[in-house]
Amino acid sequence: MKKNSVLFGIIIGVIAPLIGMLGYYFWKFYPTYSVGDFIGIILSEKTILSALSTFALFANVVLLTIYLNTRRDETAKGIFLISCIYAIAAIVLKLFM
Predict the structure, then answer these.
(1) Which residues contact 34 (CB under 8 A, 6 or more apart)?
(2) CB-based burial of residue 2 (10 Å sphere; 0-12 exposed, 13-18 middle, 19+ buried)?
(3) CB-count exposure of residue 75 (10 Å: 0-12, 13-18, 19+)
(4) Tens digit of pLDDT per residue, the chain (97 long)?
(5) CA dihedral defined by 16, 97, 25, 80, rounded to 10 degrees?
(6) Cis amide prior to 31 (ω within 30 degrees)
(7) Contact 15, 9 (CB under 8 A)
């Protein structure tokens, strides 16, 4: 796979927020809550969902900045696309949960 492609950007754009969410879990909830409890809290508390989505999308912002500054624009397009999808999903979940 090319290092400067939209597909590569999409892949790392999906993985980075998941790592960001895992980091948020370890920062705020570990060892008091299990991962299952953490997911239950996310689904029941809108404020936690907002904080979590912000933390997760920050991981993509960091990657997007790195890829834009190194002139790997195709990869940055993929990261930006996934970031927009994550942001829209977070807004929809917050409004309709």
Answers:
(1) none
(2) exposed
(3) buried
(4) 678 899 999 999 999 999 988 888 898 888 888 988 888 888 788 778 888 888 888 999 999 999 999 999 999 999 999 999 998 988 888 788 7
(5) 10
(6) yes
(7) no
Looking at the chain, list the stretches that DSSP marks H as alpha helix, in order from N- to C-terminal side.
6-24, 35-44, 46-69, 73-96
What's the whole-model pTM score?
0.82
- Rounded Cα distance between 75 and 2, Å, is 9
Residue pair 57/86 in contact (Cβ under 8 Å)? The answer is yes
Residue 8 Cα distances to 4, 63, 85, angstroms? 7, 12, 16
Phi, psi of 57 (to 5 degrees): -70, -25
Total count of residues recorded for the chain: 97
